[in-house]
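Regression report. Comparing outputs from two consecutive submissions.

Submission 1:
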Amino acid sequence: MANNVETFTFNEFPKTLAELTARPEASLDTPFKTVALCIAALTNYKDNEAAMWEMLEFLNGPENVNEFLKQFMKDRLKDKEYKVLSFFKGATPENGYTPNKPYVLEVSDNPYSYPEENWATLYLTSGGADSPRPVKLRKKPSTGRWFINDIQCLSDIRVPASQDPWA
């Protein structure tokens, strides 16, 4: 179903905005790059939430990260930080969503990803879900850069086997 799949490799996840913006993907000239950096930024939720918000501010472009988004993310990630790691190769419920190193992330589109000019919905595959998960983006025509519009990929997935009473 995917038209294009782009693969991104991280030896380490960025821990600061400076580290994030030093990556080649920080050009944000494709929606694929923006999604990859978004997921990398989200890996900071548990250990450095302030740094994560700073990175998301950069990835949101002219839109500010508002309190609604902050609460939404907390609702989705509190005690479920494994959701973000589930998008990286090798992460499964059986291994507690521990991805392979280096960390490899695949971002894909499909025939319906570009409903109108300057808008895109790309997809990530989670090791704990049966269908790809979306991230919606918007392009700023004056700069040609793609920014996060809606992080829709964080709905629940299968819990790690160590937390599953039925495993």
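Submission 2:
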Amino acid sequence: MTSKLLRFLPVTALVGPILALAQAGNAPAALPAAPSAAASSAAAPAVTNPTGTKLGTINIEQAIFATNEGQRDFEALSKKLEPKQNELKGMNDEVENLKKQLNTQGEKLSDDARGTLVKQIEDKQKKLERSVQDARDDAQNQQNEIAQRILQKMAPMLVKYAGDNGFGVIMDTSNPWPNGPVLWAGPSVDITKPIVDAYNAQSGVPAPAPGTPRSGTKPIGSPTKSITPSPTKPATPQTTKPQGAAPPK
């Protein structure tokens, strides 16, 4: 069992692969609402330069995690979930100890005792798997809530920055090709850092203190994956002959 339950979900699953800012005529573009949003998000502000022709990229996933607010809130969530992680580890250790007992003492146990132990392992294994799934769902929901809240405040900044700087389209590079739409893009067209800087300036949330652990955040440039404990299946008991029994003649 891995020591950490929580690794944060790809935000692209929340916001879609592309944030298109191209306009038809002078109509401002509106960013799509995330699937998990309870209410529709506010319309994006009018773009100051609707005729922009530049194409830019942004790693939305990276931007959300890189904000001071994102670092603070995801780290707080990681600490909040530590008791559940410890609980799951204890349950997993209990199952593993019972498996070891079965493997080392199985031949010495009576059929009834061995059957009881196998049933105990199976029941605890099922309970562990249900608990892991419940914990995973709860963590994902809380992760999505944080990401959605930050995204809703970041979206108008993205639209304004694109209009002010002559961008007609912004592509999301959170998922590398071929899973994402961008085959290749140079750093000169990436606006992730300016958007993060603008968000930090507006949010007023201070940067994490030097040396602050960041186990719950996604480092810049690293992939995000949802990683949860994968409990092993209970060992299948070996069928053994009763000790001292002689085959019938």
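Expected: both submissions complete independently.
Actual: both completed, but the second showed a warning that disappeared on reload.
Relevant detail on submission 2: Residues 1-48, 215-249 have pLDDT under 50 and may be disordered.
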